[in-house]
Amino acid sequence: MQRVLARRLKGLVPESQTGLERLIDKKRASYDLQVELDRKKQEHAMKMRQFKARAEELEQMNLDNQKEVVSKDKFIRDNCNKRQRYEESLMSEEVALAGKQVELNDLIAEMEKLKQHEVEIKTKLQAALPYKKYLDSVFERSPEIVSGSAQSEVQGIVNKYNTLKEWRGTLQVRLVRSKRELMRLRDSMSVYDESSTNSVVEIDYQIKRIAQEQEASFKEFGRERHLQKRCPTSSAIKPEKPL
User: Fold this and answer.
1) Is 209 inside a domain boundary?
2) Which of 87, 99, 161, 202 is buried deepest, with most CB atoms within 10 A?
3) Domain region containing 172
4) pTM recorded for the entire structure
């Protein structure tokens, strides 16, 4: 066995080197290989620690993103519920608006009728005024001979005219109030439309942003895991056994 090893060593080292020098060279080469191996192991261990820390960081980021998705989902559901309440309120406002519009149209029609009736009463009143003046003069001269029917008829026309004037004032007040209420309802609908549009835009933006962040996090985590799998588990360089 020693002769075989001697022949092998004789073919590997120069003839001028002694056995001790060859042994020293072998030891030096083995030491250098061991140092290089230790360095590779340290580098590998450092990379593994870095990969592990990065993986933990990405897992934490993924967990944070999931928590954010849950919170944003609650925010979106709350906004959807709020939007539904707004829509229900809008529907009730639209029903009320339609009712006010019908009431306003009825008041306008009634106002037109009263105006027409007022014109007729004025015409009758103007036609009856000369008779009233005549009856007043006759009554002043001889009240006992004047029948009360003509005077009461004229007075009835006057009273009716005054009543119509009062009704006209009341209807005008109701008409103004109805117009104000109609304007308020229209303003409320306009404000709701703008608010609803802004809420929908904000919800769509939040959903898109969360999806993009989660996708980017998953891609980054996948790249890190891929690099970690490609990294060799051992960079060992086997040293030659010293003689």
Assistant:
1) yes
2) 161
3) 2-230
4) 0.33
